């Protein structure tokens, strides 16, 4: 490694009382020497704020802010990203963990990459349960993700995206005008918009641990008569409409059809039939463009 550019780790907490200290310790115990840590609590109803305040007493250099009302991930992240001083940024949920050499591997990859327009590096991770026990590897040999121009991979859902193990250039976030604050979740939209204009590089090593908990965001997409599920699926529809307008080729539209069919299943399971109708209309438009 030729130098040590500053890396900003943004840790977002919402009712993560049981996990947040372990997450924060995984940041300060990195092998990489030049970090800043910014923490925000999004108006937790548990004792997350008290736990973080106690931890910060021993780490006065760490930035900690609290929201007076729940703003959601996108707005809370953007608030911190705009004041972050790092050349690179990591978005870390307060129930996930970075392995000790995660940031060192990511920065080294940025510095030594063959890709000249690199926007994001990402790696493999392991999924753990609420007690920290191993569940499985996120990627295996059969679904190894791509590097370079991965737009079709992301739009078409040919391989799962892994935002938990990713690092992005702050200049890329600035160009994209950060997370879309109208959305209830951010990773798919960010990866689609980033991969349209920038290259990605996959690091075939375990870089993080993603905790699978009963009330995780991903578990809400399929819940019937649930306001959070409705907001999530409304966001998905907005993201797919964006992808439709970003697509440039017939092959990209064909790839988008695959993701639309996958999302239709979620809408049906959650009984969001008005959204399903709108998605069906979008599918017609995409199908016509793919011919």
Automatic annotation (TrEMBL):
The keyword Glycosyltransferase applies. Residues 8-175 form the Glycosyltransferase 2-like domain. Signal peptide: none annotated. It comes from the Bacteria. Keywords: Glycosyltransferase, Transferase. The keyword DNA repair does not apply. GO terms for molecular function: glycosyltransferase activity. SUPFAM superfamilies: Nucleotide-diphospho-sugar transferases (SSF53448). It is an enzyme of class 2 (transferase). Its EC number is 2.4.-.-. InterPro entries: Glyco_trans_2-like (IPR001173), Nucleotide-diphossugar_trans (IPR029044). Gene3D superfamilies: Spore Coat Polysaccharide Biosynthesis Protein SpsA, Chain A. This is Glycosyltransferase.
